[in-house]
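SAMPLE LOG
Freezer: B-3
Tube label: C17
Construct: single chain, 157 aa
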Amino acid sequence: MIRRIMFILAIILGLIIIALLVFEWRTIKAEKDPRQREFTNGHLPDPLPDGFYNGVVRGYTGSWIGKTFNLAATTGINNFSDGNTLYPFAFYPGTGLRDPNTSVLKIDYNQPGNSFWIRMVVDEVVETQPGAYLGKIQLRLLGFHFTLGYFTLNKSQ
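STRUCTURE (predicted):
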């Protein structure tokens, strides 16, 4: 019985290590992208976003179309082309998880109603030019921070 438990624990530990290595590989790849420099050259959005912003993720063909921000409540939601609104978030100024010298707008999904895996996500947004925003998708896992990719937001006209 103890051997079986030790075997199962070894498999679980191995899977955790593999997952951490995959996320670290993804982070290294993302941070070599030219958008990383653009991100660290950006600044905290001023003014902070309010209302709907069109979103784009290069190479993504899913139904996500952007985010709606409620500045008065410092909350928001993600919008999808089928009319769904999912994954509520809170937002606030802060410093980058992996870029501590960059002031960012944190979009924190650790909110009631979100599943545990969504709660691990923190988007970070900087303004790169007036009305144009670059976001970084960050994952908090076991005390580590990983970069998964980038997205852009632009104010809907």
